[in-house]
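Teaching assistant's notes for section 4

Start the section by putting this record on the projector. Ask students to predict, before seeing the second block, whether Alkaline phosphatase D family protein will look compact or extended. Collect guesses on the board.
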Amino acid sequence: MTALVLGPHLRHVSHRTATIWVETDRPCEVRVVNAERGLDSGARTFTAHGHHYALIEIDGLEPGARVPYEVVVDGETVWPESGSEFPPSQLRTLDPDGDLRISFGSCRRSPGTVERFGHDALTAFARRLRDGGDSVAWPDILLMVGDQVYADELSDAMREFIRSRRAPGAPPDDEAADFEDYTHLYKLAWHDDPEVRWLLSTVPTFTIFDDHDIRDDWNTSFTWRQEMWAQPWWKARITGGIGSYWIYQHLGNMSPRDRASDPVFKAVRDASDGTGDAGAVLDEFAERADKEPASTRWSYAHDWGATRLIVVDSRCSRLLTAERRGMLDDDEFRWLDEQCQGGMDHLLIASSLPYLLPMAIHHAESWNEAMAGGAWGTGMAGLGEKVRQAADLEHWAAFERSFRQVAAGVVAVGRGERGPAPASISFLSGDIHYSYLARVTRPGTESKVSQIVCSPLRNPLIGKFRLANRVAYSRAAGWPFRALAKMSKVPAPPIRWRMTDGPWFDNAIATVRLSGRDCDVRWESPRDGGTLGEMGRATITG
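Reveal the predicted structure now:
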């Protein structure tokens, strides 16, 4: 009997469509069915590096539908599992006339002990939905903004898997090496926790990668890229990381229309027709995506009623040459700028890396960029690069030109220069392992502009790093670093902001609620026993 290896995952949904993603243990026909509702949609698997996947697209659903489903593989029902204690998984489409709730977070270590990583916010969230049913508010969307897996900080279970397939000490030491290693990372993250597996089967999920999905400080600089590509093991690592991301995460972010026109998806399916394997096609694509960022767009945007969500790739699409640095390459920035338009009630811009950092960190990163670029002489440029990599100074503030470009677009939207101004413009981010809210204070706009950070889902900072970031969060800590940036001829930021809520350092998940022109956010953290409790709440508009 064919078995599910991973999934089912409910991925892209709209008001009338839904997508189910699965991995199976052999080539097969996969169907999503509900006999009472006349639902029966299917797809053949495609194969890459000996692993088998399918995306089943369901159309013709009603807006706001809640349709229980089963997964049938080659005529046998494989989901729900026999004796399951969980409620039936559902296809959950969006309601254009209702409130929109987007729950999000980042940085999730799994597996691991409670003593080391604390209670898992995602598991606690799943338990609330399982136990509360219709009596609790469900998210319409789950957005995971980076570090869904840790390819360079391994669990004991992952180390055991690696020992089973390669010699001790084989490079890269204590890290994922290739596509096969990545498949096991995803299995550990999304299969072995039954609550999370059920959650992903019944809540529409969207994702974007951050550095640990590939490697710490991924694409921090041109120098970093040169150092990595000089390693003999890097090609298998980067192609395995990007190729697996394309399958396990990116394909489900795309709408059915986008997938239908995607040349890589067509090439992979064509190569795996019958008994073929598309591994070579996937590797070629992944290597080109890394070496030629403009060849692939990982960012995406979806409109849901009067809300536009833009999810920005701030890792793979960077412009990194000896002459220029950009958080996004030129094509990617043009695409982002085109998406930043008015005429919506709410504009959400999700980036794994926070756009607005505490002032001390922002000025330190902008100063470091100038220093590494030679503002203090060529002798100090090398030191600046070492500091950048050692201290992870590679957020939006470390790409000064990109920061200013985005600010100009957001201010234009907020002033109504690109159509009627939204009520709110919010950046949704993770990465830094604590949560907060920052509000833009200058220049004035009709829209309320804010940065909402929720991190980690499960990977808290240890004591000394908490203390350092708590100090950096204070307003007074920013002045010395602004003085250094000014000495390096870095202009003052084009916008000003202040931290108004937080910082909170516990594992957490946040939910943004959008109702008409109103927007609010709630952060929750798992307590002892794994139940969620409120950590913070803020009103953005309304």
